Amino acid sequence: MRRFISRIIKPWLALAATAAMVGATQQGCSKDASTAKAPEAAAAPEKREGGVRIVELSVTEKGYEPSPVSLKKGEPVKLVVTRKTDHTCATEVVMDGYGINTPLPLNQPVEITFTPKESGKLVYGCAMGKMISGVFMVD
Questions:
Q1: CATH numeric code, 33-138
Q2: Model-level pTM?
């Protein structure tokens, strides 16, 4: 009986304990329902610089803010992203289809320039499968 406990039960207990610890440490990488944002696009005042729209984003414990943000197809955009927390996995911005995978140092604004190619919902987020994400609504 001891051999059974040593060889079968102990590894399962260790696996369960490890899974519980991993879940606790990744808590900052997920959003709960209380922080869900309204589906309406943010109506922030538009800034422009030489025909390029400037969009300022912050990474907080709530995620990428503001989100969603309205953009126009074919209009160049310069994102100015500032990560203001070290308590999430959102330490970079990944945008599939645009070749964007940009690290975000803490408390330093980072500029990312791109032009939306297609209308619709454009999701960007962290490198962990966009567990923390933001949305651009492209008209």
A1: 2.60.40.420
A2: 0.69
